[in-house]
Design goal:
Blueprint lengths: L1 H23 L5 H16 L3 H17 L2 H17 L1 H9 L7 H12 L5 H8 L3 H5 L3 H21 L4 H10 L3 H23 L25 H24 L10 H8 L3 H15 L1 H8 L2 H31 L1 H10 L17 H11 L6 H10 L19
Helix pairs in contact: 1-2, 1-17, 2-3, 2-16, 3-16, 4-7, 4-12, 4-14, 4-16, 5-12, 6-9, 6-11, 7-12, 9-11, 12-13, 12-14, 14-15, 18-19
Length: 399
């Protein structure tokens, strides 16, 4: 069993290598490369033709809603900001803080955004601010985007109140104080490393700056109200995502029942789109509504985001194929048996008793328990359900 999943992991690594070579060396479009690599991986992994099409399609359609709808919302916000002059005005205001470095500003935003329920949606919501933060240089904006993505990834996996640490702490019974004491400094350190890494000169040529909307009527005469609306159009949806993350805490600090459903519902992609675009329209209603009613402007904006959506959805299909192989769980279970020695401090969440993890699994899987759960419990010394039966019972399997 382990050998099969190890082989699938090696095939996946080879697929990633082929994807990098195809997109960076041969300059194939990532969408074309993904829709060819994903079926090849699925066929080698053992999927039938029906399973391959169904699983890839489910992953594709899932990503078109989240984060796809949030990407569309962020693109509309960015387009309205550039067309109304809000982006240029905010860039001028941030210029006085430019001595801090655009990468460090983006990294600080990423530490906060990583607490949100979805890191991909949080990154998409903050992309309209990359032009004001990065400045006029295209390379500086790309570096700020890299620093933002790395900081969100670090914060989402380590910072307190982020979904990953909360789930791990609840399952393993970890102390919240120790989780915060370990996770927050390490997340800040990784975000700082990401900001420094983003400043490293890249060997790839920066893409040309393609304005979202041209011509931009009144770009130089944007009022301060439009720049404030741009900040609110990114900050409020981000706060809604963070509140959704707090609603996932097992202790339900924001309330349960109907209140919890409300908290989880406000962070859905449709709500984020309506709130973000609505705030931009409220700031300058006539000009914004005129742009949204302009067919040429909408075609230009949606044309820029179509390529990104196709890439994200195709990657979602490949992701679903990888998830359903079960190789991540099996390899993770095998890794638990390794002894890290002095490097064990790098593991952020360690169970107080390994038997506690086995008990949690038995509660969550009462009917069908995989074979690796029984082996793990036997190694830790905890009695399994089969070991607890009477040896005279005819239904008890042989050890």
């Amino acid at each position: 069993m382990y050998g099969m999943h190890s082989a699938q992991a090696l095939v996946f690594l080879a697929s990633v290598g082929v994807l990098i070579v195809a997109t960076q060396w041969r300059h194939f479009h990532p969408f074309v490369a993904l829709v060819v690599i994903a079926p090849a991986f699925g066929a080698i992994a053992g999927y039938t033709t029906a399973q391959l099409g169904s699983n890839f399609g489910s992953g594709f359609s899932e990503k078109i809603y989240s984060p796809g709808l949030v990407i569309v919302a962020a693109t509309l916000v960015a387009g309205l900001a550039e067309s109304t002059g809000a982006s240029d005005r905010l860039m001028a205001k941030i210029e006085r803080w430019r001595w801090l470095g655009s990468n460090w500003i983006a990294g600080l935003l990423g530490l906060v955004a990583g607490i949100a329920a979805s890191p991909a949606s949080a990154f998409a919501l903050l992309t309209p601010l990359m032009r004001p933060i990065g400045g006029a240089s295209v390379r500086s904006r790309q570096a700020a985007s890299i620093a933002l993505a790395l900081a969100i990834s670090a914060s989402h996996g380590l910072a307190l109140f982020a979904p990953v640490p909360m789930a791990a702490a609840a399952i393993l019974g970890a102390d919240w104080g120790n989780v915060a004491l370990f996770g927050l400094p390490l997340a800040a350190l990784l975000a700082a490393f990401g900001a420094a890494f983003a400043q490293w000169p890249s060997g790839f040529k920066a893409t040309e700056d393609q304005p979202i909307a041209e011509p931009r009527p009144g770009a130089g005469g944007g009022s301060s109200r439009s720049s404030i609306a741009l900040l609110l159009a990114t900050a409020i949806p981000l706060l809604m995502l963070i509140e959704q993350s707090l609603g996932d805490i097992p202790s339900e600090p924001l309330g349960g029942g109907t209140a919890r459903e409300l908290v989880l519902g406000i962070g859905r992609p449709l709500m984020l789109l309506l709130v973000g675009v609505g705030l931009m329209v409220i700031a300058q209603p006539w000009r914004s509504l005129g742009l949204l009613a302009d067919a040429a402007w909408m075609q230009r904006v949606l044309g820029l985001v179509a390529s990104v959506l196709l890439i994200v959805c195709a990657a979602g299909g490949l992701q679903r194929l990888c998830q359903l192989t079960g190789m991540a769980e099996m390899l993770g279970e095998r890794t638990l048996g390794w002894h890290f020695g002095a490097f064990g401090v790098l593991v952020p969440f360690l169970p107080r008793r390994r038997s506690r993890r086995c008990k949690v699994r038995r509660r969550s899987l009462p009917l069908q328990r995989p074979a690796w759960s029984s082996r793990s419990c036997r190694r830790s010394g905890s009695p399994t359900r089969t070991e607890g039966r009477s040896p005279r019972s005819p239904s008890a399997p042989a050890p």
